[in-house]
Write the structure tokens for this entry.
Amino acid sequence: MSASLHPTLLSPLRFDKGLCELLLIDQLALPGEEIWRRYSDYQAVADAIRNMVVRGAPAIGIAAAFGVVLGVKAGEPLEQVIATLRSTRPTAVNLFWALDRMQRRAAELSMLSHHKQVEGLCTEAQAIWDEDVAMCLRMAEHGAKLLPPGNVLTHCNAGGLATGGYGTAVGVIRSAFALGHIAGVFADETRPFLQGARLTAYEFQKAGVPVTVICDNMAGHLMARGEIQSVIVGADRIAKNGDVANKIGTYSLAVLAKAHGIPFFVAAPRSTLDPKTASGRDIPIEERSTEEVVKIGPVRLAPVGVLARHPAFDVTPAHLVTAIITDAGIARAPYDTSLSALLLAT
Ligand code: MRU
């Protein structure tokens, strides 16, 4: 089934084939307003990725794939289009995975007419989207039975909005809840962008899953009191050895989970696996503007001129990860062998 037609999906993008325009739901405006923005220019798509109108590892890969379609349709040089889209965000490997795939397809189509090239690239971008949804649904199947009874905690937004439509960690939680395996979910607010409070809470509310938002510094307290039985997060890049880059704050949760004997799961499609990166030390970590830290939205919190830092991701070492749920099955330590085997699986 095409990604745009699946009944249970909350997808952050649409593609208008007639007009050859990409539509993105503005994730900066959610949950207050559901605004769909139209893009016919690849540079505007690159800005939307950089500014986080669209965000989440698989979603930015899919948006970038359609960005390539727009650039080629407009007659822009392919290398320039790909280079611009690659320069938007450094951590999520899905972006590079999708762009490499579009580049390979463009090479295969290069002898055809311009019209046929655009058509072929559009089909490839749609395939990347559809395959992502299929991978999320498979992850949900594999992962739902892993979550122990009780409450699960998640961080950031690894939901439909971050993917082609069903979500990675959020998809697993949705399926576990539907099967009656878990009671409810805690969503970390996820400073500074508040993906948890704004987007994950919005998605679970829409899906009818009981969700409770907490500040990022409350998780340890709730774990100590026995109110959290597992943690599950998505990933932006998983190194060959199983180290996981994900939204800043994930590492602290993994340490807390270990200290409390709580399983810590990661859900990610195989497009997030990066066998070329040996360990987490080699994963580029995006540093974003410190304005996003000293302010919440337009409201300044910290004094003007104060120093701040904004690493947008952190690395959770593999030894803190109980299991990695992929579309091809579940990987456990030692991850270099289990992940390599899953990459080879059909
Ligand atoms: O900065 P963001 O919002 O793009 O970061 C998103 C995350 O860290 C998600 O957890 C990750 O991309 C997994 S999404 C399925």
User: Anything to note?
Assistant: Residues 55-58, 92, 156, 158, 162-163, 168, 195, 233-236, 246-247, 312 surround MRU (CB under 6 Å). Confidence is low (pLDDT under 50) at residues 1-5. The first strand starts at residue 13 and ends at 16. The chain has eleven helices and 16 strands.
